[in-house]
Structure to design on (466 residues):
DNA sequence: GCTCGCTGTAACACACTTGTCACATGAGCG
DNA sequence: CGCTCATGTGACAAGTGTGTTACAGCGAGC
């Protein structure tokens, strides 16, 4: 039985007040997340690089390196560039909010905030992560055409008949083309969080996908030991 | 994007404080929108129906009919059901925020807010809302003819007798031809957001529709696990 | 009152989908 | 060269989605 427990999603919480960290961590854990924390910008960056969290909750007000700075630096580093960030701001910081958004924070919550709301935001953000910002709804790769709103896939103008899961798997991979997606990641994005599904299931679906795609299957690379990738180029 | 001059998009602003309306309107206009406004729920609903704005900015706190109520009513009315809504809430209204989103607001902004941010949100929402609907009132697809104002459907010049619901279902699908519509979406657009209704009801009506359409029924595709689609081409 | 048509729900059948297993294959590594 | 482990492959049972039929409530019209 190779069925394994789903890997919890890891959240990095960055705040200089221990009480705040405590409160946030408690609620995120209760919602089923794994939580790590940092008290200042420096260690936040280090932990983000080393532990590759799935999302970051970041206080705007930090000693020494300020939250916006941390945000910018996270975006510059390739290993952390695409991690969703939620900013925590003291109320009435309107200007900073926008700047935060423009600098690459994905969402923000104003203090004082309700833990429930924060958890909701985190969940939302992780879900949204599946569809990248300018989510192309029509993609063409040589002979392969993917039309999301029409739910249509064609190879060399011949329509390919995919099931809902196969279609979703293909679009997720195609939207993240070039980047390897782990099986866990795919399970989360294609199968929606709460599934205790064997990672081998991904392999099976990918196999079916390849079979149906025929010649266009060569777009789908296997990265041994890591996951799958939709070939860029 | 075609090069022709784009018609300004119309935004309805609903707030009981004249200053707030003024501020919002000024900034939206500066961003190139046409703005209309209402000071209470009642007139908001009326203007929304009559002027069919492209988006609505709606204050949560309104005299008499409250913002959430307005939101719900907008969703129930067929002509306004799918207009994107941005809620304005006084800060710390956390619970209401969440409820607002669940009731069908598409986004919200907390007071005090920066005008720039609001404009940003509106733009985002409109972008997300995406492609303009091809709501022609007379459509012809081979042997199938749909005349919306006359409430008339013919197949091979033989008039087909549809009930109100069937007719609406058919026109909604036809107007969105090519794109798959989920059952939930159809419930919202055809049944006006009566979420009390079982999704299987859609199936039944579609079956009746197919039966009555006879040969023209082949225009209606089932996309398993996703929804229904009026065949393009 | 009654009937009739429309609507939403329930129940069932059937085909397709899906997650898992067992085994085959093959890459990577000493 | 041979071992080990990750992935490919084919098969299968259970689960799920949809077509189909039937039926009850309800309002309109007579």
């Amino acid at each position: 039985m190779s069925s394994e427990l789903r890997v919890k999603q890891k959240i990095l919480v960055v705040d200089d007040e221990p009480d705040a960290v405590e409160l946030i961590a408690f609620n995120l854990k209760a919602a089923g997340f794994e939580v790590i924390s940092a008290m200042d910008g420096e260690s936040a960056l280090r932990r983000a690089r080393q532990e590759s969290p799935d999302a970051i909750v970041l206080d705007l007000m930090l000693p020494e390196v300020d939250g916006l700075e941390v945000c910018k630096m996270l975006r510059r580093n390739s290993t952390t560039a695409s991690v969703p960030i939620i900013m925590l701001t003291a109320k009435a910081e309107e200007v900073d909010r926008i700047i935060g958004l423009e600098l690459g924070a994905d969402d923000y919550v104003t203090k004082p905030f309700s833990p429930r709301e924060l958890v909701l935001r985190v969940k939302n953000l992780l879900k949204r992560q599946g569809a990248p910002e300018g989510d192309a709804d029509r993609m063409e790769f040589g002979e392969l055409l993917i039309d999301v709103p029409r739910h249509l896939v064609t190879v060399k103008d011949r329509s390919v008949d995919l099931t809902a899961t196969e279609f979703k798997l293909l679009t997720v991979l195609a939207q993240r083309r070039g980047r390897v997606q782990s099986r866990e990641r795919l399970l989360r994005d294609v199968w929606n969080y709460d599934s205790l599904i064997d990672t081998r299931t991904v392999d099976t679906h990918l196999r079916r996908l390849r079979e149906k795609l025929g010649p266009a299957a060569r777009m789908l690379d296997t990265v041994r030991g890591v996951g799958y990738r939709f070939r860029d180029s």
